[in-house]
Amino acid sequence: MFYFREEDSESIVMVRYKRFMFSIIYTQGQGSIMNSPEDNSQFERQRPVYLERNFQIICAVVLIAVIGVSSVTPAFPKLAKDLNINPKNLGLLITVFTLPSLILGPIIGVLADRWGRKIIIVPSLFLFGIAGTACAFARDFNLLLWLRLLQGIGAASLLSLSITLIGDFYTGDRRSTAMGYNASISSVGTSSYPIIGGALATMGWYYPFMLPILAIPLGFLVLFALKNPEPKGERNLKEYLSNAVKVLKNRRLFGLFIASAANFVFLYGAYVTYLPQLINDTFKAPSTIIGLLLSSVSIAITITASQLGRLARRFPATNLISASYIFYALAMLIVPSVSNIWLLLIPSTIFGIGLGIGFPSIQTLLADLAPREYLATIISVNGTFFGLGQTLGPLLMGYAFGFGGISSVFYAATGFAVLIFFVFRYCTCM
Fold it and tell me: In whole angstroms, what is the distance from residue 241 CA to residue 103 CA?
């Protein structure tokens, strides 16, 4: 049994901050204890999900969450030249930005479950916007790295808590539909930001770094316009953590965590890192063609994910996730045998279909399995597995490349997809 109280060890400043945030949230009539999906039925309106203001605000947060990398990488060549930076060090701008998500994920989840979603998201958006915009005015690389680290701390909560909010608001088929639309929006942002960032970078490397300023007005919009259920009060930390650990030992949850990490092994390992290398080595294609082929995956994700609600009404989420690994294996197997560059659109589309049904289905099933009081914690732990997959993917596929060349990368990815298929089935279906 949980009880609510202020932790004796907390500072007066933190207590006052939380009371200030709670006063804003609860005077809007948002306060409720999230005990069951039925408690949230009042927040689900029987009109299209994409027309609901709450969902539109969540999508805006998602678009901010994915802006931090894809919008600035086109500016890296000019940045290296203007700041006299060795190009091999440019990757640090990505590493210091993504590192906080890997480390802080579980902590953010615990805080969001104990204090509430807005209390975490709103200051995160402000920090993201202020530190990110400040990067545009930095002319020292070390200062730029520190600002990117601060921006990454702000970004650490945004994606996982956006997914958590969808779990808070929706149940059943509407949850699947919302997760699918959310994945589509994220894919649109990921594919369009490089174009926007590249266009801005023609005027100066620092212009793409000004885009995060959009997070500041969004922070106020979330604070005053997002009408979401929030935990009322705080649970005993020791008891909460003890029960959370028990929940996380669930084999089905562990299978979903493995599936999430595997998705990013394929995406960041085989596809993002080594498909451009294969296209360059085999077909001598320019970067514009490489970018076009890579964007075809985003198109397939967007179209497929937008139909997830319909698919979820016909097939269980576990079957959709299992099918995604069949799509991954088929796509990876085809890539090395393609003899015409435009035929790469076939495996790219197959791969995008797999991501479009697999990724949001994992989020949906996590939200279905998670006890309401641990939802943010479980989604945030899953976000840590995202980061693990992003980190391990290029390393694992790099070993395959060193062992047998570029074709071995995709054959290894095929074998890995088959392995994860059986691991996932064992964890979730037995």
Answer: 17
